[in-house]
Fold these 4 entries.
Entry 1:
Amino acid sequence: MSSTFLGMPTATGFVRGDRSFPDAAVDALADDQLRRNLAHATGTIRAKRLRAVAELDDWEELRLAGEGVKADTMARLPELLEELERNVTARGGVVHWARDGEEANRIVTDLVRAAGAQEVVKVKSMATQEIGLNEHLEAEGIAALETDLAELIVQLGEDRPSHILVPAIHRNRTEIRDIFRRSMPGADPGLTDEPRELAMAARSYLRQKFLTTQVAISGANFAAADTGTLAVVESEGNGRMCLTLPRTLITVMGIEKVVPSFADMEVFLQLLPRSSTAERMNPYTSMWTGVTPGDGPQEFHLVLLDNGRSRVLADPEGRSALHCIRCSACLNVCPVYERVGGHAYGSVYPGPIGAVLSPQLTGLEGKTDVNASLPFASTLCGACFDACPVRIDIPTMLVKLRADAVDAAEEAGGRPSAEALAMRAAASAMTHPRRWSALIGAGRLGSWKKGGFRRLPGPGAGWTAARDMPSPPSATFRRRWRDRRTDGTGGATGTGGDA
């Protein structure tokens, strides 16, 4: 286990599930409807994103610029956060610091009560999902209404988000119609599954809430340290309503969302929409700086959330996970996510970025820690790095976290796993030519011409539980190379099965 994971506070909230990824993935793979929904949605988004990105000749330069700004931010994060606090305060806002999710939930609850409210409207926010704010408020007798359409679908369906950008990606139109008919107050029993009808039903339900609710809670996509300006980007207009109509606005923001200057937002406001919704620009980009008398919320509170981010920042090899701008591009190109969906990851952060971010936020607590399985939820194909707008090297980070997970398991259990023993045996064979030759020869035993072994025995059974074992070729490379050297014509004459 990396020494930087020791002696630091860990994340609280919904960053660790209750099942390992392999166990949860088995159930997801058995859901044919889920797989069809995911394949259709991610395939559509991938194609649109490629077209949007191809419009810019300087896309790679923009990615490099985004990576550079994020690296600069992480290198001097404490001073930038202090600068942000000074500028927010100077413009009439109040800044609160939350060590973990529990502290952030207490701060928000106290602020809502101080405003005399029993109900709040919410802009889509990964940070509040991470800390379980809705559940905490409900336990305190405060109703929290999600206003993003996909988040509303998840909330009414008593479900959990399964995607960073499209939380209800695992639902199709018919399922959404059934949820609205069953759970949305005032919904027309004859509501159809036409997208426009579904959207209008949600709009009618939410409009009165926007006009009467006195407290709104939001996240933030970016915050400029030099001006104290915060920004939320969205596609429906619900965010604009929440950010302008209520009297009190409370923003919960992960500390990594700060950028050094207002001008730096220019880079990310080009990268984010093309990578997420495949649009040239977001339909709604809302920015606010403190409080303006007579215009918009008259009380503004900014809750800066750590919740394990400091421990990630302390690891030079892992801190680039904090560069993430929550675009979800890595999820849409990941072959693993496309087949199992977001719920299998347990954490509110699914997909490739969740596989590296969640274990770092929580730390690794031994072989029984379900988050220790997340770094293995990848083929290491590298598609996530190619798609990432800020060039997070997720594959390299996954390899490191796999090593950390193995070390943590051995430290906690005292004995290496069957997989670790198998890898050690393979390493011993692969570093000795004669051993390797003997191993290849042994592996060719069996009725290969009849289809070969479909399942491996012993420790290999877990690998072939969801994969077919391919039959070996008719001749090994060693045999073909030997034949090329002795043939004289350069042709491979041997077809035998020896090593």
Entry 2:
Amino acid sequence: MARRVLVVANETHGGRSLVDAIRARHEAGDAEFVVIAPQNRPHSGYVIYDEAVRDAARARVDATLHALREHEIAAYGDVMDPDPYSATLDAVREYGIDEIIISTHPETRSGWMRRDLVERVHDATGLPVQHVVVDLAADRDETTHTLVVANHTARGEPLFEELRKRAAASPHTFTVIVPQDGGEGHHTEKARARLEALLGRLHEEGIPATGGIGDPDPYTAVANALQFYRVDDLIISTLPKMRSRWMRSDLIGRVQKLTAAPVQHVEIDIATEPAQAGAKAA
């Protein structure tokens, strides 16, 4: 039987060095891969919903799974406990793991290394543990990672066309964040429906995209996303200024002060979008 290899990473998911290490193990033969990420929270003090934490972890796993699919390497993924040590040991027990690959930032920037994660996992499991260091600053490829923030305009045709145009012009991957209108329950369901509608259209076009729901406050949702995801630039989609709470709160200007990444504003009048008729202002 193939040996089952556990891949553990957090912010370094999708990094070229990690993907290369998995490819090398795949080419050595006799291996299948389980890819996990812990549900870590952002470093800032912003409030964040548990579902947004899970979505971010799922997106990180998906980044590695997508890269492996491009190399025709089959793998499946899971989202685990927030503590990387507990997450790794849980996965070892749950999936019957034979080997482990742990990916971290360089030692000077890695919280996992400061907590001796690699050594602790090896001592606790007795399994072979390969440590892969991913320097994201040196590991960047030619793909632009664009953060897209939209709520009721997420289904608007102008936003979709802008994303499709960008993807056709140069390699892009999109992370879509849809802030909720309020707390849990039906607000979460509505936000997720808008998210999945846009992601579905992008996937039908073969455009790499992932994402999740975010905090009801769009500024907080952006601030959290900047910590969760790699972001080279941003697109913020709103209703026209006179009908948009986001514009009245100067969201674009506040986000431009929050990040050095370029911010593009896409304005959509959902009154001209039949699928959006009756939607509330956002």
Entry 3:
Amino acid sequence: MKRILIVKVTSLGDIVETLPVVSDLRRAFPSAKVDWAADAAFADIIRWNPGVDRVLSAPLRKFKKARNWNDLKDIGASIGELRAEKYDVIVDIHGVYKSAIIAFIARGKRRFGYLNQDLGERGAAFAYNARFGPRPHTDAWRGMRVSVADALGYQLDETPDYNVQLPAPTRSLDIPSGKPIAMLFHATSADVKKWPKEHWGEVGRWLVARGYVIALPWGTERERDEAQTIAALVPDAIVLPKLTVEECAHWIEASELVVGTDTGLVHLAHALQRRTVMLFAATSREHFGVSAPGRSVSVGDHGAPPDVPQVLEAIESVMGTPARTVSGSAQSGAMVR
């Protein structure tokens, strides 16, 4: 096996949760080159994994929104780059039309895709000359890893290795030291995933009483207004400036705790091995949740959002003991009673 192409196009959380596949392939085929085809909006996150040799990206989302001629030219150029290599195997672990088209255009001996009943879009089946086995009875993230391992004939290491290495910040982010930081990711792409602002206020005050400084990120003007509403309920809470995904990742890395809804940046917190609590209200916890004993936990479920006591209990479960004030740098993780 000399060259392998991963096809996973979007979105942020899915891209993050696919990173362990790279480490799996590296262990199984140490001398192989591993490339990845994705939407340009998420290419930088893939580049944070040094196990990826080449990131092939096209502004698919951007073109769909703006229909800009330059974006179309970039898509054309990316097709040429994609076809510049011939792959021993292509693994489409997305399973929709756009990923299938990429897999079909790429030059490869074997193009693996999901069985028809497991595809996100049935029509994607046209692209494949080989199939993964039946979808395993596990969460979506481990399921991807199992599918590729079974198809390519290697043993899966049960501990996922995200291997995320952030580049140095390009500007000062004014991350406070002296107290542990808890980031509360209240914002989501869909209102049905949201948790009441009053609940966030209760959690924030509970954490402040235990020595934390609360940081509230946001992405849109509406989300900034929501962050300011929550901040008014929590003493000394910080409403962050608008950050890039990379800058937000540095804040996450500097934090002691991340609590948030089922969003990509909370998946990133889990990948960066922060203590993470993920809240579910409109999606399946069993299918899309995060879990690492003593470090990451998911609460709530589709149609059954958690209440405040459940979230506080989850926070204590990942902290090991009730939070205490940090002595020294917040990044150190050293805590004193």
Entry 4:
Amino acid sequence: MRAWANACLVILGLAAWICQVQPGLAQTSDLVSKSAFRVCADPANYPVSTRDGAGYENKLAELFASRLELPVQYTWFPQATGFIRNTLTAKQCDVVIGYAQGHELVQNTNHYYTSAYALIVPEDGELAHVDTLNDPALKERRIGIVAGTPPAAHMARNGLIGTAKPYNLFVDRRVESPAIDMLDDLKSGEIDAAILWGPLGGPLVKADYPDFKVIPLIKEELPPRLFYRITMGVRQGEKVWQRQLNSLIRRNADEINGVLAEAGVPLVNDLGTEVLELSQ
């Protein structure tokens, strides 16, 4: 009798645990749409994401949706202050295609590529050989930099801020595009060099500025780091969805790399020490 009673207690305890845990799991799963691959995206962040689907993150979204046999459905919002709060957290969509690893606002998937900030210069100009920000050739040059981004600290350390031209960081890209403005200024001679996040600058150069050279800044030894691992972002606690996306990232790595290489995204190894050469 005592053994039977103990067994009953174990069964009752397990049943109580299931009752406590399963509703939470069901709620987590139910937040992710089963009828569409719902993407949170900026409608005017060319060449990354655009409302007309021309961005490389649009192509990655189409790739993942096809593997899930679902249509893509977008929630559009400018990728500035309030982006995550008004899209992913508000449950209007289920995934951000590109998000830096380790950011607390989202739960990160495994990273699917690593890239770095890049120096962009005229391909046949006097700065085409430069690959570090402490190169004497940069002294007294006017360099474009997005204010508040990590390379600005390296520029300050090397005495380059005094002659720099700053561009805004937090903007609504439907009305202002600092990256394109910077490259247009480089083309006109208003600045001598530009520093941009590689996944933004690289594709812009490939598509619209063929006379420029993109040089990933992988030789800077002091902090802050200039390379970042890029993941997909999902809501905190959605482990089942995170694991599903991790599986898709692993199984479709070649296709993902193909999309990025075709777009012109400069890819580096996970330690940010070597540029990867992928066929396009």
